[in-house]
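Note on ligand handling. Small-molecule inputs were canonicalized before submission; formal charges were left as drawn, and no protonation-state enumeration was performed. Where a ligand contained multiple stereocentres, the stereochemistry in the source SMILES was retained. For flavin mononucleotide, this procedure yielded the string shown in the input block below.
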Amino acid sequence: MSVLFQPVKIGKLEVPNRFVRSATYDGCADKQGRVTAAQVSLFEDLAAGGTGLIVTGIAYVHESGRISAFQNSIADDACIDGLQQLTAAVHAKGVKIAVQLFHAGREAAGFLKTRNQVAAGPSAVEDDPYFKKKCTSLTQNEIEEIATAFGTAAKRARAAGFDAVQLHAAHAYLPAQFLSPWSNRRQDKWGGSLENRLRFHKTVYEQMRAAVGKDYPVLVKLGVRDGFEGGLGFDEGRRAAQMLAGWGFDALEISSGLRGGKYRETEFKTGINSPGREAYFRDWCRQIKQEVDVPVMMVGGLRSPGIMEEIINNGEADFIAISRPLIREPDLIVNWKSGDFRNPSCISCNKCLEALYQAQPLHCAAQKTQSRV
Ligand SMILES: Cc1cc2nc3c(=O)[nH]c(=O)nc-3n(C[C@H](O)[C@H](O)[C@H](O)COP(=O)(O)O)c2cc1C
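Structure output:
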């Protein structure tokens, strides 16, 4: 059997194969952030499709970090019942599930404006070409309140039956904003040196660990380089990865940090139409894999099963994480398992993403249109 179908452990958690459905926001929660029947059905399909570990989309831990009206909440106890339906549906198929814990920081500006509120991040950066909306700088008390909210959310995750939590520390959201010297201009203990820019991550980690106990898997998706000059550089990003693994994060998924203005400067690159354009974070992931003692997940344009096997056989990663192809073909992995090693038909056009921005539920917009259920 292909190395891709070997079970792998994250701490004490055994994942049935090396495939991870990388976190994918689905825009299908109700307006209170509760799980809907459409979401249960989406996760049932993904689990039936054979992915070993499914990471949910972004679930906000605190109202100040919410980014959409159709986003899941894990910010209050009333969400636990619905989340339990999701975990039960996935477990019924023998698949593991983690929830992605999220705070948007300054990126919540658009949504909070609809509520006449202003978003806050580490710093209000003047004349930032990459962020033109209004935001303020978080106070010390606000930072601590948000860190505590991550801990409480992790506790809810465990109560709802999730096998793990994943801290979203990539893609321009709050932890990535703290890590980036571009968006973090603070001169107090939360800014300046790499250690200070990681203090938020450390505080959040300690809150989560205290809430879930030492044996529960706490994962992180880390942005190790920003998409533009003057942002986080890879030298610091890889050191950050080492530090997070050293504190006790149980697995790292390696991605990018703050975005530039174009798709090619983000985590969702387009035009993945040849082997050379696949696996676009492979170099970062391979280097970090050599420097940490915990499982590493590679994400970003992974498409050909042959390349995935090569990555695992070379020891460049422990897991292969995929997002866009599974939107179009949730049964991709089960097909591969049966010996049908065709590449995904996803063309990475990002129409799925553009449809979400227009408040449509997650679907492959290159394939067909779909209405909210
Ligand atoms: C529609 C869509 C929604 C996404 N939502 C999330 C999310 O909630 N959290 C996250 O960390 N990344 C999110 N991503 C990024 C993916 O997890 C992944 O890192 C990226 O798409 C690259 O992998 P791929 O080439 O396999 O799609 C999203 C991507 C897409 C296309």
